[in-house]
Amino acid sequence: REKRLTLPPSEITLL
Amino acid sequence: SPIPVPCAVLVRVMKNASTLGIAIEGGANTQQPLPRIVTIQKGGSAHTCGRLKVGQVILEVNGVSLRGREHKEAARIIAEAFKTKEKDHIDFLVVEPS
Q: Could you say which of B30, B39, B78 has the minimum Cβ distance to residue A10?
């Protein structure tokens, strides 16, 4: 759970 | 994957518009480890198909797993699946949001 909190948000890509 | 995935659905999107028309977020090493559909654009192939929905998580594209792929690589795989003239469709394996 702690690891998850440290992960960055993702960028968004339009396809 | 040998691990059973609940509610995984195979969706075939025909390439019947000039764009696929989805936006995705997520990828390995982000808060959303598998790509998730965040937008379906009207007029795109995905919208015309009618079976892809915002919130679905994409597990596979044409049988290629997206697990462990970073965002840009997952986006590239989807873009190339749409661009190739070898197939007139893309098969998405997606999971409904729980």
A: B30
CB pairs under 8 A between A and B: 44
Which of B15, B25, B36, B90 would you mutate first to test chain A, the one with the most A CBs within 10 A? B25
Q: What is the pLDDT of residue B96?
A: 84
Cβ separation of B30 and A12 shorter than 8 Å? no
* pLDDT tens per residue, range B10-66: 999 999 999 999 999 999 999 999 999 999 999 999 999 999 999 999 999 999 999
Rounded mean pLDDT of B84-93?
A: 97
The two tokens of residue B7 are 């509610």
User: Within a 10 A sphere around the Cβ of B95, how many other Cβ atoms?
Assistant: 17
Contacts B22 to A, Cβ<8 Å: 14-15
Task: Give the residue from B38, B42, B58, B62 showing the smallest Cα distance to B50.
Answer: B42
In terms of Cβ atoms closer than 10 Å to its own Cβ (0-12, 13-18, 19+), residue B76 is: middle
